[in-house]
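Person: Show me a sequence?

Helper:
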Amino acid sequence: MKLIIQIPCYNEEGTLPQTLQDLPRALPGVDQIEWLVVDDGSTDNTVQVAQASGVEHVIRLRQNQGLARAFLAGLEAALRVGADIIVNTDADNQYQGEDVERLIAPILNGQVDMVVGDRGVSTVAHFSFVKRWLQRMGSWVVQQAAGVSIPDATSGFRALTREAALRTLVLSEYSYTLETLIQAGARQMAVEYVPVRTNPQTRPSRLMRSLPQYLMHSGLTILRTYTLYRALRVFLGLGGIMIAAGVLVGLRFLYFFVSSQGAAGHIQSLILAAILLIVGFQVCLIGLMADLINFNRKILEEILYRVRRMELEEDPEDSQ
């Protein structure tokens, strides 16, 4: 059983040593533990610090590509070196390394595909009241979109099995946390949350530069990912609302038409009803087309999964 602990980094020379110092080198049920640092185009000495700290694998991206791309690059690299379990943690020492054992326990027991560390966002001391409230609200929204219980949607402290990592795709350029949870729910993966501890904040969040920007990016990620995996439900819902509105407006016109007032002065209602009904049916048809495209996406994802497995089975590094 080989565990790879991956750490996406961007200019983390100051916090990376402490983060690495807290990570385990041996755990019950694990034969081999290796560290992997993904340098996301850092301009400081992050790579040198990682190498001096005994990191076995350092992946360098030539320029800053964002947290989502760095996370996916780490997964692919970890799979290439034969990881059976992959743990992702932040380079700012937010999470306590001792909790890696707690994080991977459900996977070692063969219970789940993915485990996410629950920080208890409502009680994190360095979170402001607004941030705690937004974290809870965001987790609730993602929970509705994913269809699984999600107490802490934005936690980056998570563990994946090899199979879960092979099936994970990250299309967003902003963050991987929300998208991968909705994806896991759509693919009916077994996801579990375990309580984890956090350390005092070492620096401000780079992902949340401003509240409006964070809300906009997170909202778009949730909407885009949910629509990608639940296209029929989204478009049928929108189309159904338009059709229902058209029917109501049409009934209003009929009421006045059969009454003594006639149609005079209410022709606008008839036009609006016709527009709503036509557009509503068109949106429903778009939903049916999107659902058919969704089947093609599933086929392509299965092909990609099988190609990944074949490449890794042929990779000499994977057998070492």
Observations:
- The first helix runs from residue 16 to 22.
- The first strand starts at residue 2 and ends at 9.
- The chain has ten helices and seven strands.
